[in-house]
Amino acid sequence: IKQRFHQLLMEALHLSPISCPLFVSRDSGMQDNLNGTERPVSFNISALGGRPFEVVHSLAKWKRYALGRLKIPVGKGICTDMNALRPDEDFLSSPIHSVHVDQWDWEKVIAPEQRDLCTLKETVKQIYGALKQCELETCSRLGMEPALPKEISFIHTGELVAKYPQLSAGERENAACWE
Questions:
Q1: In contact, 20 and 82? CB cutoff 8 Å
Q2: Of 140, 66, 69, 150, whose CA–CA distance to 105 is shortest?
């Protein structure tokens, strides 16, 4: 399922697979500080004169660098499978966090005039289409019925506040999903 979804996602978004670094030089400027509180896992490489390196914990800067270095045109992008270490994650109180992060990361070149809500929604629909296709193929192989809605829907935060004023942000999101 993971491999098939990866393939469908790359097709839907016009992405090419690319390898990403496991670690970067501390002075490379590629390490992203996430929210400013993470401590990167660091070590020195003796063969390089003891220079300090850090295990990547985000690829935000590196992906944009790779798009430019590879001269990826508008409408196309890259997809990579990142392995990272985030030692400050509170994984004991969260079912979705871990010290070890294994996640797909992708970035696509869009024109300045495409940086709008319409493009964002279209991209989400493309991702959802890949997810739906993967679900259909998986359910067909396993003799199951698909469970995802036919189409993805969008709702603005302001609409959720108006509809559920007594609930917290997370509770409003959960209520909308249940609905």
A1: yes
A2: 66
Looking at residue 35, its pLDDT comes to 65
Give the number of other CB atoms < 10 A from CB of residue 63: 23
Residue 14 neighbours by CB under 8 Å, 6+ apart: 75, 76, 77, 108
Residue 23 neighbours by CB distance under 10 Å: 19
Distance CA 90, CA 104 (A): 21
Average pLDDT over residues 125-142: 98
Q: Which residues pair with 54 in a beta bridge?
A: 24, 42
Lowest mean pLDDT: which of 44-48, 50-54, 95-99?
95-99
Q: Buried (b) or exposed (e) across 109-143, using 16+ Cβ within 10 A?
A: beeeeeeeeeeeeeeeebbbbbbbbbbeeeeeeee
H helices within 1-69, ranges in order? 2-13, 60-69
- pLDDT for position 56: 85
Would you tell me how many other CB atoms lie within 10 Å of the CB of residue 53? 21
How many residues would you count in the chain?
179
15-17 and 77-85 as β-strands: parallel, antiparallel, unpaired?
A: parallel
Strand-pair partners of 145: none
